[in-house]
Amino acid sequence: MMRIRRRGASAAVAGGLGLALALTACSGGDDSGDEGTSGGGDTGAANEIDCSAYDEFGDLDGKTVSVYTSIVEPEQQTQEDSYDPFEECTGVTVEYEGSREFEAQLLVRIQAGNAPDIAYLPQPGLLNTIVTDFPDAIVPAPDATVANVDEFFSESWKNYGTVDGTFYAAPLGANVKSYVWYSPSMFEDAGYEVPETWDDLIALSDQIVDDGGMPWCAGVESGDATGWPGTDWIEDVVLRTAGPDVYDQWYTHEIPFNDPQIIDAWDTVGDILKNDKYVNAGLGGVDSIATTPWTDAGFPILDGTCWLHRAANFYQTQWPEGTEVAPDGDVYAFYLPTNQTDIKPVLGGGEFVAAFDDRPEVQAFQTYLSSADWANTKAKTTPMGGWVSANNGLDPDNLATEFDQLSAEILADPSSVIRFDASDLMPGEVGAGTFWTAIVNWLTGTSTEEAAQSVEDSWPAS
């Protein structure tokens, strides 16, 4: 849906464009329990903002910038709230449109000559596809955005937004995907311990079965993007069984998609997801994974019918209102363990800000989104939690929850071996197409070999 932002909304911000924006007060998380509010701010008395840092953008009053993204409710509201300082100080109206069919519809819109000003691309592979197939559609990032990225992000994150030596898209949010959600109280009552190795995880799953339970719940339905949660499973396990070097060779196609090491990893996932003793707790049989919405797949943990659900940090925002996410709360998450002793692999992801127009107001908005100040504003306008960034200017104290701070620590930890979501780095027709389809087919009866071969056969020749 499209929602047009209005100027004068309550703002919560710190810093300013990597330049000098000052804010006299920030909205907090203590009085912000209702989704759809401006991060708990007082709409009756907007905070005062020093707008002098925006003067360099010139006269933008009355201009509009359209944004198209896959970020929808409940995350959409906090995204929009984070734009308030930019709109208030520049006079620009940001027209936000979130869609669950984003990946499919964006290419249709580009081809029809109806591209948005800005799109948040969740796959670097999709960026590559757009640059390759529509070379005149997307525009390189402006110098001010480049300067922010060089200051606040690592080189690897900048590289994800670069195609053939040209930098197009700055990182926005970041995800830590290597998590397993559970109920701390259920574990305590049953005498279960959080597993520290993959073998421990399987032993725990077997123990739950022996105790009369079904350990895992899962779902991969996501509209036109159905299947993507299953690709995260495969990627996380490739990192754990084959290792980061093989992982890199896999997504770059230096080895075939169906290399034996990838088949082994896929079968390891199958030991869980295609095991009718393990899944699909509270939801049905193995086949139900393909039709269970990913947004709801962890809910059986809340009624005690499921014990374990693998999902990223952003799943925090999917729990029903009132669910406490904390080490002693209703739900929490632990790191998806590995038998590796020399590394701690972490599967990550995120969005990238691509522009299809170089009007001054579009470039100004790109620059704002790449700043440490936007990252801190976004943290403060997300009082319910569920968001982090790889921006090194983000103050972890501004993050709303202990869980978000844990994710930020993992992203910033130099000992973590972080790899970006492989499907997001693959060519768009594979990573956002045939890989998703293969997951669904595999969950509904296709063999591992057939599923992986179908993706390999679809890989573009160049």
From TrEMBL:
Residues in the signal sequence: 1-25
Alphabetized UniProt keyword annotations: Signal, Transport
UniProt entry tagged with the keyword Lipid biosynthesis: no
Top-rank taxon: Bacteria
Xref: Pfam families: SBP_bac_8 (PF13416)
Similarity comment: family membership: Belongs to the bacterial solute-binding protein 1 family.
Name this protein carries in UniProt: Carbohydrate ABC transporter substrate-binding protein
Organism of provenance: Cellulomonas hominis
